[in-house]
User: Which sequence fits this backbone?
């Protein structure tokens, strides 16, 4: 076949042009591919960098910290290394109260102080929201000394948005050589958790026995989180009695946990655990609902005393606590003045702005507020005067020393006088002996509570005890064993006044 030469030439020309074009395209493609590759690898390394850095504080992330630890311990001739884990106690409470923006500012200040306290040879990383790791190559100074320096650095109050915040920290320490390097971080974390579970605000060095303790505590927290649905909680009640008439003025609800295998566990142990692990909200709500039901049932049976619950710091910070309480009171047809919220003095003084808000809300709905464990915190008279509380409970420690110590008597006398000046009722708790009772009566204490009168007991036992006591003591007791405790309506509704019981309804 003859080929038209012009066509052939044309085709050749087109082909050459095409090839040229293709070659150009290919070259451009290669250039843009390699540009893309470069960009991709830059983005990848930026992403990796970002993964290695904590975006909030700028220090290493958990992953970055683990890498830094590997790098240090695997260096040829690497000596012993120390890892510290710093956990900020009760941080969740601050986060819930103030939100993320506030917390981010606070954490930046925390990091600044930790970096300064650790010194230039140390590497800091953020392991979790409120947990930091500090890597100390070599053993420049004893590890526990560094731990203390870190805690001291955080002890001064922080200022965020014109708000003063106090922090405490739990520090765990683990040291070892290259062979132990992979386990150093988890050991430091375990030592920190051990401190935290024991109440926080301390430091500890890793000890192999901690591993077992830690598993045990973790299991306890898991069980605690299921205790409500498994119906393992119960409220016990301990009466408060009027010093003069010995009538029961109130019953304080004290939470009990019947663990299926460990038996009864003290609230002094599990309440702080619940606070630290975010379980206190559900438990607090359960206590509130249960106490309201019991108060209503007792009212129906003619038992006219107040019912008191213990309110945690977390509940004070909850915006809807007072509203929830008010709804509950209304649903059960209970008068707010017949219900008491006991709040410890140290909780009340933790964050005075939060306390004022919470007390004002409780005062507004007319609930009786009691300041518990008084004398152990550092409240000023001025601060107390501004709180719409109706009652002050003298801490057990002062009562215990009454008979032997003139100093304890002087303190109790001063507390009673001050409370009466502020028109607060004074309750002494932990009264165990007749001698203590007599001193308290002489010092003008209004009400008493303690084993001398009755131990905490089930609601049913309290009803039976009351009936028994009533029958046995009709000579000395007034017409009704239970005292009507009613808030005065009107201008100062938050300041409850006790009215004498007339007769049982
Ligand atoms: P608290 O509110 O100061 O309660 C008084 C504690 O002293 C109770 O211990 C009570 O059983 C005990 N007690 C009463 N009378 C005497 C006495 O004469 N002598 C001695 N030695 N002790 C006496 P419990 O029930 O173990 O409670 C410990 C703490 O746990 C309570 O101290 C309270 O702060 C907290 N708690 C108990 N129930 C709750 C709750 O429902 N919610 C919250 N947030 N805390 C609770
Ligand atoms: Ca109490
Ligand atoms: Ca108390």
Assistant:
């Amino acid at each position: 076949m003859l080929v038209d030469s012009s066509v052939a030439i044309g085709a050749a020309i087109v082909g050459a042009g095409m090839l040229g074009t293709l070659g150009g395209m290919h070259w451009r493609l290669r250039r843009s591919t390699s540009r893309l590759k470069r960009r991709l690898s830059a983005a990848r390394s930026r992403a990796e960098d970002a993964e290695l850095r904590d975006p909030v504080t700028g220090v290493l992330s958990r992953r970055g910290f683990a890498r830094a630890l590997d790098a240090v311990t695997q260096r040829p001739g690497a000596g012993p290394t120390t890892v510290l884990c710093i956990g900020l106690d009760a941080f969740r409470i601050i986060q819930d109260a103030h939100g993320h923006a506030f917390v981010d500012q606070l954490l930046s200040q925390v990091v600044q102080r930790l970096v300064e306290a650790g010194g230039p040879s140390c590497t800091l990383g953020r392991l979790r929201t409120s947990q930091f790791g500090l890597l100390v190559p070599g053993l420049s100074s004893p590890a526990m000394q560094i731990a203390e320096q870190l805690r001291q650095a955080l002890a001064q109050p922080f200022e965020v948005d014109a708000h003063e915040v106090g922090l405490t920290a739990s520090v765990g320490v683990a040291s070892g050589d290259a062979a132990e390097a992979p386990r150093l971080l988890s050991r430091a974390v375990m030592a920190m958790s051990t401190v935290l579970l024991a109440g926080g605000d301390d430091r500890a060095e890793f000890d192999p026995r901690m591993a077992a303790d830690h598993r045990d505590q973790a299991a306890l927290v898991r069980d605690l989180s299921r205790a409500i649905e498994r119906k393992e909680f119960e409220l016990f009640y301990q009466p408060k009695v009027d010093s003069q008439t010995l009538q029961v003025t109130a019953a304080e609800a004290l939470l009990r946990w019947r663990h299926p295998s460990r038996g009864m566990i003290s609230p002094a142990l599990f309440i702080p655990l619940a606070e630290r692990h975010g379980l206190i909200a559900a438990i607090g709500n359960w206590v509130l609902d249960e106490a309201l039901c019991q108060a209503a049932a007792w009212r129906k049976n003619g038992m006219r005393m107040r019912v008191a619950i213990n309110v945690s710091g977390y509940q004070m910070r909850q915006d809807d606590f007072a509203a929830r309480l008010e709804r509950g009171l209304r649903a059960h047809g209970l008068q707010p003045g017949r219900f008491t919220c006991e709040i410890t003095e140290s909780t009340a003084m933790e964050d005075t702005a939060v306390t004022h808000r919470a007390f004002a809300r409780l005062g507004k709905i007319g609930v009786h507020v009691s300041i518990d464990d008084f004398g152990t915190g550092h409240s000023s008279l001025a601060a107390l005067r501004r709180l719409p509380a109706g009652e002050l409970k003298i801490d057990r420690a002062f009562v215990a020393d009454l008979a032997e110590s003139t100093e304890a008597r002087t303190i109790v006398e001063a507390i009673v006088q001050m409370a009466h000046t502020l028109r607060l009722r004074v309750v002494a708790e932990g009264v165990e002996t007749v001698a203590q009772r007599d001193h308290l009566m002489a010092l003008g204490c209004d009400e008493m509570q303690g084993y001398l009168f009755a131990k905490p007991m089930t609601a049913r036992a309290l009803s039976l005890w009351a009936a028994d006591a009533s029958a046995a003591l009709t000579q000395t007791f007034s017409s009704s064993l239970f005292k009507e405790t009613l808030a005065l309506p009107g201008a100062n509704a938050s300041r409850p006044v006790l009215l004498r019981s007339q007769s049982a309804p």
About this structure: The chain is about 50% helix and 20% strand. The two ends are 126 Å apart (CA to CA). Residues 252, 310, 342, 372 surround calcium ion (ligand 2) (CB under 6 Å). The chain has a mean pLDDT of 84.
